[in-house]
Specification:
Length: 110
Amino acid sequence: MRDRVDNADRAIGNAELKIEQQQTMIDDLKTQNADLVRAISVFKTQLEEAVAIAVESVQKDMRVKHGVLKAKNKQLADLVVDQKAEKQMLITQVETLDARLASLEDAVGI
């Protein structure tokens, strides 16, 4: 009977030792988890700041390019208007020259 009691006491001692070891491991894992949560939070903040800076840079670039495109578009529109006016002037000159040529042909008899 005494052996059984001693065996039970040793088993209880071993179980308590194992529980203490596992509790220590759990405490270490909780500490590591808290450290990881803080590190992830810092990384997330840094990433959000970097993304915000990149977005602002792209937006600024797009605003500048949009301004340049609007200016080019205005130049091209003005050029089209000028070319249409020049086309009309050339048509008028051609019609005038055609009338003169017809007049000269009539005068010469061709």
